[in-house]
Amino acid sequence: MRNPDLDAAAGPPPPLDDAACFAAVARRDRAADGLFVYAVRTTGVYCRPSCAARPALPKNVSFHPTCAAAEEAGFRPCRRCRPNEASLAERQAEAVARACRLIEAAESPPALADLAAAAGSSPYHFHRVFKRITGVTPQAYGAGRRAARAAASLRQEDRTVTEAIYEAGYGAASRFYDAAPERLGMTPTAYRRGGEGAAIRFAVGACSLGHVLVAATERGVCAILLGDDPDALLRDLQDRFPKAALTGGDAAFDATVALAIGLVEAPGAAAALPLDIGGTAFQQRVWQALRAIPPGRTATYAEIARAIGAPSAARAVALACGANPIAVAVPCHRVVRQDGSLSGYRWGIARKQALLDRERDAADRP
């Protein structure tokens, strides 16, 4: 089954797979809503795949890629599931989008009851819907947005740290300082000074895919970068924290580098590599889901979105994959397009293919 909206630009959609469509209707699969509709000859109506109507006999059912196609064939929309109107999932997604805009525009975090009232829902139900769609709670989303505003303000030289914290919507400076090491990787003062005072050890080594730069804070590995030019890799690290105390690793750190290189050479191997992942709450959920993909296997952006409980957030999942700074250990190379082809990879499609080939070869060995 294909999404007709995605195929529209490429011309008419291919014929639907009747067996797969009927299986989706039999299990009332909400994930199939929007991919096709089915019509029943004995009633003259067409429905969403998830419609709760009584099952029809296969011989009386036909499948159509769009509502318009079903109506052109002489069928009328079902009054129960209303396939020609916005689905429940679409209405919920719009309500959550409005709530996100309210959270982003508010100077202080809106109460859950107020967000739910604006969506015409109960607080308990809205909380569940919001988390299912975005992958985080309204409170966590608001915390992430405030942290992002504070980080942006900290980069402005005309703002003091205190001003940046209160302008971002924190009612008390202590609340931001408590979360700062996790959100920024260092204190707010060090962050606004380009990492001044932060200790980051690094080393560059050679591997079969070019060069690899490994960097770590005291909390764990914060970057594994791949490339052809060691100087470019170092500039990438310096651009992130231009005033951090970057020091070459000692003998103990060489062991960490060896583990990282080992992951490049055998990306399916297990390695006790401590990570300082950082990122937003949503990014952390995505990156954790990436680490759950078994070696030698792949997943699509949509599958990752469903795995973190945010089935409509495939585009946000793709952005989180692109923002991943820890190659191989957080295996964003295992994510592919819906049709199984390779999507973009921060360190080059050729490296992505090589990593996948190595994992599959290892999985095929007895």
State the shape.
flat
Overall mean confidence score, pLDDT: 78
> Low-confidence segments, ≥5 residues, pLDDT <50?
1-11, 158-189
The strand line-up of the biggest sheet is 3-1-2-4
Say how many strands there are: 10
Q: How do the helices and strands follow one another from N- to C-terminus?
A: HHEEEHEHHHHHHHEEEHEHHEHHEH
Over all CA atoms, what is the radius of gyration?
A: 25 Å
Which structural category fits the helices and strands? alpha/beta
Percent of residues in helices comes to 40-55%
Strand count, sense and barrel status of the largest sheet are: 4 strands, mixed
Which band does the percent of strand residues land in?
A: 5-15%
N-to-C span = 35 Å
Report the total helices: 16
GO biological process, one term: methylation
Binding site for Zn(2+): 47, 51, 78, 81
EC number: 2.1.1.63
GO molecular function, one term: sequence-specific DNA binding
Question: What does it look like?
Answer:
A hairpin with a 4-residue loop joins strand 1 and strand 2. The model is unreliable at 1-11 and 158-189 (pLDDT under 50). The chain is built from 16 helices and 10 strands. The chain is 45% helix and 13% strand. It is flat and about 75 Å long. Helix 5 (112-118) packs across helix 6 and helix 7 runs antiparallel to helix 8 (161-167). Zn(2+) binds at residues 47, 51, 78, 81.
